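// run 5 | inverse folding | seed 20
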């Protein structure tokens, strides 16, 4: 069972009220607004202020223990996260959850690149993978991600180190 509590108020016309209360009265949940700098939501056993709702400029802003970086209501409505947070998510769904057309390019029978286009008309790139070889073996792979306009957004280069002809390590650099 949840205890529902109505705060007491002293309404005054000089502070935006529509009447003057001479004694504290219960807040009317269907009429009255509460004015405060922010709202902290605690659990019965935790009073740590890690879950907060407050105003920043003209924006409603949220913070919690899992998301210590403030997010506005506009952020949440627009998808809820910026590029840095998005980058931390599992990316496999991006290749599965889109309609696309892959173009495979070869030299001497070996794949040099795979370009993922929006459609088979090949007007807008989504992703591109370019393979470089040394002595016939893969030496590096460059992965490129394009934005919604088809403009290069970021790039990841993987360089392979071989010992006795076998890959022993992979170094990745994001640009």
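// decoded
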């Amino acid at each position: 069972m949840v205890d529902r509590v109505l705060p007491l108020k002293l309404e005054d016309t000089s502070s935006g009220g529509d009447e003057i209360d001479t004694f504290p009265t219960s807040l009317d949940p269907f009429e009255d607004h509460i004015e405060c700098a922010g709202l902290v939501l605690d659990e019965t056993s935790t009073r740590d202020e890690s879950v907060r709702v407050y105003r920043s400029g003209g924006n409603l802003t949220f913070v919690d223990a899992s998301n210590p970086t403030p997010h506005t209501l506009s952020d949440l409505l627009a998808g809820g996260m910026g590029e840095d947070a998005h980058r931390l998510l599992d990316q496999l769904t991006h290749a599965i959850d889109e309609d696309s057309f892959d173009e495979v390019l070869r030299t001497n029978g070996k794949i040099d690149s795979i370009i993922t286009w929006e459609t088979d008309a090949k007007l807008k790139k989504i992703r591109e993978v370019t393979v470089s070889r040394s002595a016939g073996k893969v030496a590096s792979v460059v992965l490129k991600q394009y934005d919604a306009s088809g403009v290069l957004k970021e790039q990841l280069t993987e360089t392979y180190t071989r010992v006795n002809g076998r890959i022993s390590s992979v170094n990745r650099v994001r640009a």
